[in-house]
């Protein structure tokens, strides 16, 4: 018996749910999983200390590299107050409140070279802001449960939704505003799915695993959130395939020929995949947007809203969440830049220019979304009886 509860074409896209699941499971997910482990794609350059422009009063975000050190000491559990062996008491001032929220900055080699710095009008987090950036190995910092919750986290999501991309009223005719809302909601679904899929089940035993109830409570019971996840996936996939000439010719040199050839080969397999081209050649049709007289003005307005969302990432009061928040918002900003900078397909003579970091963010975002789609597909039958109307 078919347990699928969502069928038909993904709203505003060009492929149906079943095709997305098949193509993702058979082709995209395995390729992306390989790609993000290569040296080129696993190091992300990021400004991690928060410089929140909106709530300078937020105690979680006041000091460099230190998310919670402004909290009164008695708010910390005893175990966090005691310095771990080999660590001076002073060093503790800048530890995250939850150890699982801190970013591991270990790098095994220096691999950045030779890419240009260009502006991205959709984000405030591009590489032109070089001075404060550090390199992070993403494989050492998986997106997972960190314990970041409560008013600080809620304030960010509330600000994103209420100030920057208000939920569209049904019957809303402005397609472009719908797109922004759906992209953010799809990303939010994906973050929640990763929290639930890699959850601290037992703190005393340090036991990690899937928390299916949390996945259901936060995402699966809401058909719209699942739909928005599929939409965001197809949107980002379209951006990757649209920039295929650029991505194919880009420089993946990290000084490790074997690994760099692997990255290049996996990128080609992704961009020129016959199964993907046959099943879903144009995952999203961006040509339909920004038509009409108010198009350019609307585009500027939405660009400004997206930049605000990007700036809000500096207010995320948990280092690891900030890392993945920034990466994924930069990835979305890169997808927007690719889809809305130049009309039609890119050719060599056109001027799409991407930063190395943008390419890394874009591919890692696609991988996160691909993982989420797979998890939804795997987990949904578990809740078959309770899921209605997907
Ligand atoms: P939240 O997820 O905070 O949601 C707030 C409200 O938004 C909900 O009540 C609902 O009304 C609405 N909402 C929820 N999902 C959707 C959706 N898909 N579409 C539309 N509306 C929705 N925590 C971690 O443990 N690990 C992380 O890596 C992590 N990364 C984060 C990154 C960012 C950028 C932010 C802002 C937060 C992050 N968090 C992370 C915190 C996490 O997202 C939640 O805020 C936290 O777990 C509390 O969850 P909640 O149940 O209160 O609902």
UniProtKB/TrEMBL annotation:
GO terms for biological process: protein folding in endoplasmic reticulum. Its cofactor is FAD. It comes from the Eukaryota. The active site is at residues 318, 321. It is found in: Endoplasmic reticulum membrane. It is a peripheral membrane protein. FAD binds at residues 144, 146, 157, 185, 188, 218. Disulfide bonds join 61-66, 318-321. Its main location: endoplasmic reticulum. Keywords: Disulfide bond, Electron transport, Endoplasmic reticulum, FAD, Flavoprotein, Glycoprotein, Membrane, Oxidoreductase, Redox-active center, Signal, Transmembrane, Transmembrane helix, Transport. GO terms for molecular function: FAD binding; protein-disulfide reductase activity; thiol oxidase activity. One of its GO terms (cellular component) is endoplasmic reticulum membrane. Belongs to the EROs family. May function both as a monomer and a homodimer. This is Uncharacterized protein. The chain holds residues 56 to 445 of 474 of the full protein.
């Amino acid at each position: 018996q078919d347990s699928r509860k969502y069928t038909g074409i993904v709203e505003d896209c060009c492929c149906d749910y079943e095709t997305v699941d098949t193509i993702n499971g058979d082709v995209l997910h395995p390729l992306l999983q390989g790609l993000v482990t290569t040296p080129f794609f696993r190091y992300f350059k990021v400004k991690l200390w928060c410089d929140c422009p909106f709530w300078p009063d937020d105690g979680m975000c006041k000091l460099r590299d230190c998310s919670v050190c402004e909290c009164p000491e008695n708010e910390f559990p005893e175990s966090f107050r005691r310095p771990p062996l080999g660590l001076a008491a002073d060093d503790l001032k800048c530890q995250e409140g939850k150890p699982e929220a801190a970013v591991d900055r270990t790098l095994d080699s220096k691999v950045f070279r030779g890419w240009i710095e260009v502006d991205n009008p959709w984000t405030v987090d591009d590489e032109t802001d070089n001075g404060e950036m550090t390199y992070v190995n993403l494989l050492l910092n998986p997106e997972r449960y960190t314990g970041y919750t409560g008013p600080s986290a809620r304030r960010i999501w509330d600000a994103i939704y209420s100030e920057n991309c208000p939920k569209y009223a049904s019957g809303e005719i402005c397609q472009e505003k719908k797109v922004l809302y759906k992209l953010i909601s799809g990303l939010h679904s994906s973050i929640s799915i990763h929290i639930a899929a890699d959850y601290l089940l037992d703190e005393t035993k340090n036991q990690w695993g899937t928390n299916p109830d949390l996945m259901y409570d936060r995402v699966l019971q809401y058909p719209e959130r699942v739909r928005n996840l599929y939409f965001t996936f197809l949107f980002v996939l379209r951006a990757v395939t649209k920039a295929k000439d650029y991505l194919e010719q880009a420089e993946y040199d990290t000084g490790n020929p074997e690994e760099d050839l692997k990255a290049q080969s996996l990128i080609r397999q992704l961009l020129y995949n016959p199964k993907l081209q046959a099943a879903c050649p144009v995952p999203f049709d961006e040509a339909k947007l920004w038509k009409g007289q108010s198009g350019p003005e609307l585009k500027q307005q939405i660009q400004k809203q997206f930049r605000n969302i990007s700036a809000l990432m500096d207010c995320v009061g948990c280092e690891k969440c900030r890392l993945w928040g920034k990466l994924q918002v930069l990835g979305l900003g890169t997808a927007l830049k690719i889809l809305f900078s130049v009309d039609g397909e890119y050719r060599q003579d056109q001027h799409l220019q991407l930063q190395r970091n943008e390419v890394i963010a874009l591919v890692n975002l696609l991988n996160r979304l691909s993982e989420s789609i797979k998890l939804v597909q795997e987990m949904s039958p578990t809740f078959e009886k309770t899921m209605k109307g997907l």
